[in-house]
Each structure stands twice: as C-alpha cells, then as structure tokens.
C-alpha cells in the first residue's frame, strides 16, 4: 500500500518593527471542511511545482497579506501526518519591505487554497492555542519562543 502524498509548505514569522516581540498572526476561516477552522496561526502556503521555499514566502506575502517581504531566513522545519497527506513545513522569518498587512479574501477561482479572515499582531505565546490544536506552524514557532524574563 503506497504511503500518503507529501505536501511541502512554508510558513513565515513576521515580527513587528520596534521594541515589542509581536508576530503577525492570521485567522483561518471557520468553515465546514476547513483544516484547523478558526485558529490563529502564521501566514503559510503550499509550494508550487518547481518553486523554491524562499520564493513561496515572497509569493504568500503578496497574495495572502498584501505586503512585499524580504530578508527571508530559514528558522526550522517539521513533519506532521494529516488525514489525507503528510505535511512538510518549513518555517521562515521575513521582514515587511513595503505595504501594511491585510487579509486579501478568497478569489472566486481559488476554492482549494486557504485565505484568511483576519490578521493582527500578537505575542508569540498567543499562538499556543493553535499549537495545542495541531497547527504545525504554531508548534514550530512556540517551541522556539522564550518569553521575556521579568
């Protein structure tokens, strides 16, 4: 019996410029059939055929949150078995070079891609709920997060 197909994806941690350590979080739609409905996580996208992960990070900035990203840096990666596939996710960090983050909405001709319903800045520990609910991008980020000491 053949194994499940592997889906290669990237997620990006975009930190707010300034003294805070807030990261840009996006909310997934709370719709029937949606994986991880309603959770807050990091912007992410599946790699296109022959697309380098760094190129996918730049594309998701444009297509999903309306910003131009740069200074892309690999952070970590992980694997997770899902119902119909195995997810291989690479986590990157990037900076916003131009634009203000905003959700883009779902184009009519792209029913198979996840588009977000909201975005906001939050401390990385705000993604712990997503990590508990099975979001691999949240798990990868919160595993690396060290809260500020008092």
The ordered string of helix (H) and strand (E) elements is EEEEHEEEHH
- Straight-line distance between termini: 54 Å
Strand content: 25-35%
Helix/strand structural class = alpha+beta
Instruction: Please state the CA-atom Rg, rounded to the nearest Å.
Output: 15 Å
- Could you say how many structural domains there are in total? 1
CATH superfamily membership, which one?
Nucleoside Triphosphate Pyrophosphohydrolase
Low-confidence segments, given as residue ranges, are: none
The largest pleated sheet is described as:
4 strands, mixed
Going by CATH, the architecture would be Alpha-Beta Complex
Overall 3D geometry?
globular
CATH class: Alpha Beta
Note the total helix count.
Answer: 3
Mean pLDDT: 86
CATH topology: Nucleoside Triphosphate Pyrophosphohydrolase
Strand line-up across the major sheet: 4-1-6-5
Helix content: 10-25%
Structure overview:
By secondary structure, the chain is of the alpha+beta class. The protein is 18% helix and 34% strand. It is built from 3 helices and 7 strands. The chain has helices spanning 53-65, 128-132, 136-144, and strands at 6-14, 23-27, 40-41, 44-46, 68-81, 86-98, 118-122. The strands form 2 sheets. The chain has a 4-stranded mixed sheet with strand order 4-1-6-5. Strand 5 and strand 6 (86-98) form a beta hairpin. The mean pLDDT is 86.
């Amino acid at each position: 019996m053949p194994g499940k197909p592997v889906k290669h994806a990237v997620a990006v941690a975009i930190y707010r410029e300034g003294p805070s350590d807030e990261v840009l979080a996006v909310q997934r739609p709370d719709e029937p059939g949606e994986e991880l409905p309603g959770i807050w996580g990091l912007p992410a996208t599946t790699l296109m055929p022959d697309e380098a992960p760094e190129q996918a990070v730049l594309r998701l900035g444009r297509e999903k949150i309306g910003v131009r990203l740069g200074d892309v840096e690999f952070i970590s990666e992980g694997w997770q078995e899902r119902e119909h596939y195995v997810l291989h996710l690479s986590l990157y960090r990037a900076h916003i070079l131009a634009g203000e983050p905003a959700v883009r909405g779902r184009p009519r001709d792209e029913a198979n891609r996840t588009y977000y319903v909201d975005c906001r800045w939050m401390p990385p520990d705000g993604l712990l709920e997503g990590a508990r609910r099975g979001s691999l991008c949240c798990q990868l980020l919160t595993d690396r997060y060290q809260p500020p000491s008092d």
